[in-house]
Amino acid sequence: MLVVLLAGCVVLGVIWLPELRGEVAEGRWPRVALIVPPALLSLFIAGYAAYRWSLVRAGRYPAGKALAQVGLMLLGLGVVAGATRESVPGAERPGRVAWGLRSSSPEVRAMAAELARHRPPEVARSLLPRLVELLADPDAEVRREAHASLVALCGQDLGSGKESQPAWSACASSPLRAP
Fold first, then answer.
1. 8 vs 66, 73, 77, CA distance in Å?
2. How confident is the model at residue 86 (pLDDT cuts 50, 70, 90)?
């Protein structure tokens, strides 16, 4: 019965982990959240192995069967741990830059605004609304880098500052210039 429960947990973990990795890449969950599924599974396996070991030592359970069950559990743990280590294709770059554009640190926002202009057009397009918002940022360096990225991505200078935000928003709907 416990092995069936464990198999269900492993299957659900493997199905749910890609979504969790995507949310971590977008900055909605901290990276440490990826450690939780394999850590909980490890605790379960340790407890289960200790219980089976005590039954084997008492002569109430066959050692080979206990070893096979624990081995299968460790295999399941390897699958879950491996699933947490896989990267989400295409999610790291936009997620990290998008996260940086929302950072509370002006240095991080400025660096992310600078990086945005070096992203592929399909990634950069998703960053345009936040870059337009950063034109009104309280930090001058963030405003400067957001403006430079918008100029590089749109291929024209529509002005800087809060008053130019509507013009830049219109640029977001037109084709981007390749970086």
1. 19, 12, 12
2. low
What are the start-end ranges of the H helices in 26-88?
36-57, 63-85
- Quickly state the pLDDT bin for 46 (edges 50, 70, 90): very high
Q: What is the tally of helices (H) and strands (E) in the chain?
A: 8, 0
Give the Cβ contact number of residue 30 at 10 Å: 9
d(CA 106, CA 146): 12
Q: What are the residue boundaries of the structural domains of the chain, listed by start?
A: 2-85, 92-171
Q: How does pLDDT run across 92-119, given as a tens digit for each residue? A: 444 788 888 988 999 999 999 999 998 8
More confident residue, 104 or 86: 104
- Dihedral (Cα; 90, 92, 95, 99), 10-degree rounding: -170
pTM above 0.85, yes or no: no
The C-alpha atoms of residue 178 and residue 147 are separated, in whole angstroms, by 17
Q: What angle do CA 33, 6, 49 make, to 5 degrees?
A: 95
Q: Looking at the domain covering 92-171, what would its CATH class be?
A: mainly alpha
Q: Which amino acid, 120?
A: P
User: What pLDDT, on a 0 to 100 scale, did the predictor assign at position 3?
Assistant: 67
